[in-house]
Amino acid sequence: MKRFFESVTTDRRQGGFAVLLDGRAMLTPARNVLELPSAALAKAIAAEWAAQLEEIEAATMPLTRHAYTAVDGVRQTVDRVVAEITCFAETDLLCYRADMPKTLADKQAQAWQPLLDWLHEEHGTTLVVTNGVIPVQQSPEQIAALEKLVAAHDVYALTALYTLVSISGSLVIGLAVSAGRLDSTAAWVASRIDYDFQAAQWGVDPEAAADSIVTRSDLDAAARFLDLARVKTVD
Q: What is the residue range of 110's domain?
């Protein structure tokens, strides 16, 4: 798409904040007004649009993509999104540990157990940990408690949480980022224990490494979107 606008500004509206292209409020692909929960997020999205040159490159606007998803997608299907995110607890990465080698098992324990301990101490929720990859049954009561934690997120935070959880393979990691317990770098490192161990042993696959750059960028963008959406405006 060719750049079709000259100016990019932001404005406070009754429903939140808007990004204006040549004075007109931006619309989503589904033709909804792009309402944003904070001035900080609106300004960051405006900066993505202002940075476009002759052609608009969607790949360079991750905050915009998250905002579109929140307004056009998540807002319309909140219950389904909450359920999909919660399902990750059934097979959470942090609950499946290696038996051998000991070095890998130790790395997993050092990185993952503190997060499970945090979840228990902060929210009274405990997940069962096992060795190997055979699925382990988690308590329905614990899953229900986690679902309440997920459902407490608004549509913008829920959008970011979905990305964080799906990339990391861990609801616990996603919740830890949402709560400020982890930043995106720590979340990425925790989610890559197994991959990094195998890469150290057998070498890095170039194609996988290229994919990892994109995936890491998506995770960082989700964490930034979450932070910006929560910035309170000082009147």
A: 77-229
Residue type, 56: I
The angle formed by the CA atoms of residues 89, 90 and 96, to the nearest 5 degrees, is: 90
pLDDT at 68 over 80: yes
- d(Cα 16, Cα 231) in Å, to the nearest integer? 12
Distance (Å, whole) CA 200 – CA 153: 37
We report the CATH number of the domain holding residue 50 as 3.30.2180.10
Mean pLDDT of 139-154: 97
Please write the tens of the pLDDT for every residue from 108-124: 999 999 999 999 999 99
Position 188 in a domain: yes
Phi and psi for 207 in degrees, rounded to 5?
-65, -45
- pLDDT exceeds 50 at position 50: yes
Distance CA 109, CA 112 (A): 5
Q: Is 80 helix (H, G, I), strand (E, B) or coil?
A: helix
Residue 224 placed within a domain: yes
